Each structure stands twice: as structure tokens, then as C-alpha cells.
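Design request, C-alpha cells follow.
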């Protein structure tokens, strides 16, 4: 008995719904993505197997590195209200006045490295210009002019003023080639304020390290 030949028909799939889903997902990821802010003092952190993440709030970071063979220290505060409060305290101590616009601009800066006397000039720059090499010389932290110690103290006060129930946490981020005396100098500044618990920022070590 002869086999009945089935007529082949062209198949078509309506991709309209799939395209709609793809564009919705793409729009979602674009709107929720956070742009990485350029670091004014990029450092190559040492490797480690520790995978503990730093908190997103209640944290201040001290970055130590070199630019043109010169040691530099930068300071950053995660919370905007802590930045604003610390700036008010620093302005009172150093007898400086910042406008509301300058205060609002400072609240947007995650990390900086200039003496308090040069902060107005930094705030007047565009964001891209602030991150250029050599623009920020670092925060003074020597025995004669230790502004870093003041920033740490006033950030802690601003953190408590904001109603925090826990102490402000600190992290030290240093270059892998940084010499130990420089790191110890920062540790001593923290310990002078009875801050004996802090994090050391490292990069994740590969499995074939």
C-alpha cells in the first residue's frame, strides 16, 4: 500500500511577545544599574581569600597610595548625611564657610583627597576634572597638620547625630606595594581615637594563585 505523503508547510513563530519581554528586561537592567564612580586614587589591593563584603552604609574608607612617588591619603564616607555633618564640623573648626550649593555638591562626592582649605576649589570643578591625576594632593595627616584625624572624629560624631545605634565602621584600602609604616601610621590615627576594629580591603585571590 502506497504511503501517503504529508504536505510540508512552512512554520512561523510570532516573536512579538518575546521582543517585548527582551526590551522590558533590558530597560530594567539599564535603569537599576549603578555607574561606577572613577576613583581619584586607584590602588591595586593585595589578594586574599576572604569574601566578606563591606557594608553599604555606616562605613568610612581611608585609601593610601602613591602618585608620582608621593604618598597620598584619601577619605570617603558612604552616607550622604554623614558627609554633610562632618563638613559642618570641619567648617566650624577651621573657620570656613560653605554655601548650601557647595554642601550639596560635597554630599555627592564619595571620596576626596584635598586639604580642607582647598575643598572649595575642588567642589567648583566638574566631576571628571576632579578625578584627573594630580588634581587632589591628598589629605594632610602628619604631626603638624592632621586633618585626617579631624575628618575621622567628625564623621563619627555626624554618624551618631543621625541617630545611628552602632559606631561608624572603618576600612583601610592600601596598595599591595605599600610599605607597612604608612599603613601603621593610619592605624595609629584610628587607635588614638580608640578605634581598634577596622577592615583591610583586599582583592579576591584566584583559585590558581
Amino acid at each position: 500500500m502506497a504511503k501517503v505523503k504529508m504536505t510540508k508547510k512552512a512554520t512561523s513563530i510570532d516573536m512579538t511577545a518575546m521582543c517585548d519581554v527582551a526590551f522590558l528586561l533590558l530597560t530594567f537592567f539599564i535603569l537599576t544599574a549603578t555607574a561606577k564612580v572613577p576613583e581619584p586614587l586607584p590602588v591595586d589591593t593585595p589578594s586574599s581569600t576572604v569574601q566578606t563584603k563591606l557594608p553599604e552604609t555606616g562605613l568610612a574608607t581611608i585609601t593610601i597610595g602613591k602618585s608620582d612617588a608621593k604618598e597620598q591619603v584619601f577619605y570617603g564616607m558612604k552616607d550622604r548625611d554623614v558627609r554633610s555633618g562632618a563638613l559642618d564640623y570641619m567648617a566650624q573648626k577651621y573657620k570656613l564657610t560653605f554655601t548650601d550649593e557647595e554642601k550639596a555638591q560635597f554630599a555627592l562626592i564619595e571620596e576626596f583627597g584635598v586639604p580642607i582649605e582647598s575643598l572649595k576649589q575642588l567642589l567648583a570643578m566638574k566631576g571628571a576634572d576632579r578625578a584627573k591625576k594630580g588634581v587632589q594632593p591628598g589629605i594632610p595627616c602628619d604631626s603638624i597638620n592632621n586633618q585626617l584625624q579631624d575628618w575621622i572624629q567628625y564623621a563619627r560624631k555626624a554618624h551618631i547625630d543621625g541617630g545611628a545605634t552602632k559606631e561608624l565602621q572603618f576600612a583601610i584600602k592600601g596598595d599591595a606595594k605599600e610599605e607597612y609604616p604608612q599603613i601603621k601610621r593610619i592605624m595609629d590615627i584610628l587607635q588614638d581615637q580608640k578605634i581598634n576594629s577596622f577592615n583591610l580591603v583586599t582583592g579576591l585571590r584566584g583559585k590558581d594563585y
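Comment from the thread starter after seeing the answer: thanks! Residues 16-32 form the longest helix (17 residues).
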